[in-house]
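#data-curation
PF: Archiving a pair of folding outputs for the training set. Convention for this channel: one message per protein, sequence first, structure tokens after, nothing in between. First:
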Amino acid sequence: MEYGKKYILGVFNDEDVLLHGTEKIREAGVKIEEVYSPFPVHGLDDALGYQRSRLPIAAFLFGATGTILGLTMIFWMMGVDWPMIIGGKDFIALPIAIPITFELTVLLSALGMVGTFLIVSDLKPWGTPRILDIRSTDDKHIMAIDIARNSLSKEQIGEILKSHGAVEVNEKSID
């Protein structure tokens, strides 16, 4: 969310009403900025029209990097830097590389995914979260609609929200 924007907030009590209301509100031509919920609502991603995340691709790439790094490290240490004869093999014995390669694959996947998630989600340790309605952390579902992105007026958007299950409609600006 950017500073200086004005939002219309629709407050919903029930996740089923929110889910069906989201579909109907989007069909009415309203562009929804985001929906905040105290717990995951199954099917809400599809109702909002979100595309599938590309985070699994990043996880695979981090894992592949860990595998290549682990094998390269073992082959360098055991074959070039400090060669040892293990199991009658002069250069490299692959079975000794498997545990270290596995651990580096898991480590780089995990650390890479944490870093990628924090960057994509804009969660900085020094950042301050902008909460539109504190009740979204307890028991209410909040639908935020950016007024500037919609061609409908505030009153029309408010009526659409109320007709599709919102128990309360508020206006909030981010300063």
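PF: Second:
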Amino acid sequence: MAEEMKKYLHEIMSQIDGIHAVLITDRDGVPVLKAATESAPELALRPGFLTTVGMATDQAGKLGMGKSQRIACIYGKYQVIHFNRFPLMVSMIASSTANTGMLLGLEAELSSLVQDLKAAVDVI
């Protein structure tokens, strides 16, 4: 089943030019499911980087504007999009020139996969 999910992530990645990786992690940055190309930056795939996102989401929630649902960051060569789907986080790493709107649009397409993984994580 995990291989089918990984294949599904690769299919989704093929729809958008410039996407390097899609990761679904727990709040501690531990990968539950990961699909990446060879061009994905190694540092962005590490749990240390991914765990920072969970902390940033929690801190952003303290701004008094409600719980953070999405975070988009653009750096020199890359952009990173995160979806908060407690207890999971979906992270996408793409080139800075990739279409951000299309990346954000993947949230709906990934929702059924995330729901399945949530059910599995809740059991464990």
